[in-house]
Structure formats: structure tokens, C-alpha cells
């Protein structure tokens, strides 16, 4: 099983992102655009795991808690690593401080199981598109400059999810395996 931990977000934000992609797609046809219905906020990529390791992973994730819900506002468009050499287009996420703390706590809990720590610092975002070559992205980058403050909505989340990712020729497919409320008093679904 190929696993990762992520937060979900509401359909209203998903619809706004769908409209954004529809507006940007004609500007860079060579990009691999993400499907909004499959988007999530990745907190930790676990990777390939044997099914018998699910129990300890559930146990570790069930121990992660926060005093408050994570507040997120989806705003703006940008690029990794930068606008001059774009490899990924993203929608930015402004969040409460505890989002980074939640990602770090998940990282620490899973590290105790021998799951390697991320080398990159956590940066909350939604991936909009990936580029094989940045050569055809100039028009897209120029348009994104006008969208740096565009607002796509907000959410308040009280649980994170363990997902299975299956790689297919048509793109990755995701299945929610389990949900973990991280705020005291939040009901498990």
C-alpha cells in the first residue's frame, strides 16, 4: 500500500479551484493539471507500507492531538521552486500556526515507527499543475502575478485522514483508509 496523511477541504473551495484551473489551463497546455476532486493538503507522505503495518500506523496517528481546529484560507497562485524556473503551480494556504505543528507531530509520531522524516520543510499548498519543462509557462506565470491575492475560500478542520494512493496511467487515485479527529471532543467519522 502507498500511503499518505492529509487534510481535506470543503467543496466550495474545490469549486473555486476548479474555476481557477479552467481559467489557467489554456495558458499552458503542456502542464499536467490536477483534478480538484482528488486534491488534499498533504501533511506526511509515508510511501509503500505492508498491510500488517497499518495497526501501528493507526495507533501512532491516533495519538496526535491539538488544542484547536486548523483554520485555513486558500489564496493566491505561485510556483515551486520559483517563478523563473516553475516545476509546480500551487494555490497558497494561509493557516493557523497549529497546521505546521500538526504536520510536525504526525512526522514525529511516524518517525517512532521507522518512517523517515521529510527532508523539506512543511509548506501548506494545493498542487494545481506540474510542468515537465518550464519553457512554455511564461504566459501562465504572468497571469498568476495578477492572482496573488485572489481568495478561494476558507475552512476549519478537526480531523486528518490516512489515504491510500494507487498509481494508474490516468493519474493517481486516492482512497480514504481512516480518519483521525485531532481536537478533543471532535467525533470520529
Which features characterize this protein?
single chain, 189 residues, alpha+beta, Cyclic Phosphodiesterase, Chain: A, five-stranded antiparallel beta sheet, 4 helices, 9 strands
Description:
- The protein is α+β, with helices and mostly antiparallel strands and 189 residues long.
- It has one domain: Cyclic Phosphodiesterase, Chain: A (Alpha-Beta Complex).
- Helices cover 24% and strands 34% of the residues.
- The chain has 4 helices and 9 strands; from the N terminus they run βαββαββαβαβββ.
- It has a 5-stranded antiparallel beta sheet. The chain has a 4-stranded antiparallel beta sheet with strand order 3-1-8-9, covered by helices on one side.
- A hairpin with a 6-residue loop joins β8 and β9.
- The mean pLDDT is 92.
Précis, in short:
The protein has 189 residues and is an alpha+beta fold. It has a single domain, classed as Cyclic phosphodiesterase (Cyclic Phosphodiesterase, Chain: A), CATH 3.90.1140. Helices cover 24% and strands 34% of the residues.
Shape: globular
**Strand residues, percent:** 25-35%
| Radius of gyration over C-alpha positions, nearest whole angstrom | 17 Å
The run of helices and strands is EHEEHEEHEHEEE
Provide the structure class. Answer: alpha+beta
Spans of at least 5 consecutive residues with low confidence: none
Oligomer: single chain
